[in-house]
Write a structure and sequence with these properties.
The chain is of the alpha+beta class. It folds into two domains: about 20-125, Sandwich (Tumour Suppressor Smad4), CATH 2.60.200.20; about 150-255, no CATH class. The protein is built from five helices and eleven strands, in the order E-E-E-E-E-E-E-E-E-E-E-H-H-H-H-H. A hairpin with a 5-residue loop joins strand 7 and strand 8. Helix 3 crosses helix 4. Mean pLDDT is about 90; it is low at about 1-15 and about 255-260. This is FHA domain-containing protein. It comes from Streptomyces capitiformicae. Keywords: Phosphoprotein.
């Protein structure tokens, strides 16, 4: 069913399941009516109800669709380029449609070069009027995860490349970290095995408190490497500003450290 004239642009109905969509060139709202399809892309109507990447020839004229059925809005990629969802999930034209959850979902349409075009989606829940302006409200502080002094020093050493905001950072190996820690804290008894055990304890504790990325092994989905879980930990701590560049000062006098390689 094509998008009808009953679609209320710029209005936020109260009905649960109402879809709100927004790009830099426009916005719309659509009621949760079975069979209703909302399309987005570079083209004009009727190819696309919502314009996105309108000046980018790598974006298809009809790049994606959202269809309401079975109580959900189902997202499908109909364009030649990939669509990226949160957590790095990708959609190709051959990917099965994905149901949106209530609340906010950003998606990015791959464009030319490094360009990515944002489509903001919001599905209203019960008693939800949709996204509202909160320009005068207090800013919500980042979720800072608790770390003791030894944990912070250990994580700064392991994640120093993340704190330098390198383009594709990787953690130091446990043996490299132990070598630096032994030089900095010679009486603390740091060894590669101790580093591993302390990191595992941090991962286990933070995993129980709602850390956004996977920190523990899930045997039902195969066993990810410890290096991948450590990457998730360091990336999450830096992105939440639990670890920040001034923490690198904990590694003072690093010019006197032995060369641990790259």
């Amino acid at each position: 069913m094509p998008l009808s004239t009953s679609l209320a642009r710029g209005v936020a109905p109260a009905a649960p399941g109402t879809l709100h969509a927004r790009t830099v060139t426009g916005d719309l709202s659509a009621p949760p009516r079975t069979g209703l399809t909302v399309s987005f892309g570079r083209g004009k109507k009727p190819e696309a109800d919502l314009g996105v990447g309108v000046d980018d020839l790598s974006v298809s004229r009809r790049h994606g669709e959202l269809t309401y059925r079975q109580g959900h809005w189902w997202l499908r990629n109909t364009g030649q380029q990939l669509v990226r969802l949160p957590r790095g999930r990708m959609m190709h034209t051959t990917t099965e449609p994905i149901p949106l959850t209530t609340g906010y979902t950003p998606l990015f349409v791959k464009g030319s070069g490094y360009r990515e075009h944002l489509v903001e989606l919001y599905v209203a829940d019960h008693d939800d009027q949709g996204p509202v302006s909160r320009r005068d409200a207090e800013t919500v502080r980042p979720n800072i995860w608790p770390l003791d002094d030894d944990e912070r020093l250990l994580l700064v050493v392991l994640g120093q490349r993340y704190l330098l905001y390198e383009e594709d950072p990787r953690p130091l190996t446990y043996s490299m970290a132990a070598k630096q820690l032994k030089f900095l804290r010679p009486d603390a008894g740091w060894t590669p095995r101790k580093v591993e055990h302390r990191i595992e304890a941090v991962r286990r504790r933070l995993d129980r408190t709602g850390f956004k990325d996977r920190l523990m092994h899930d045997m039902s989905e195969g066993r990810p490497s410890d290096n991948r879980l450590l990457h998730n930990l360091l990336k999450g701590l830096v992105e939440s500003t639990t670890l920040v560049p001034p923490d690198l000062d904990l590694m003072e006098d690093d010019s006197a450290w032995p060369d641990c390689g790259s």
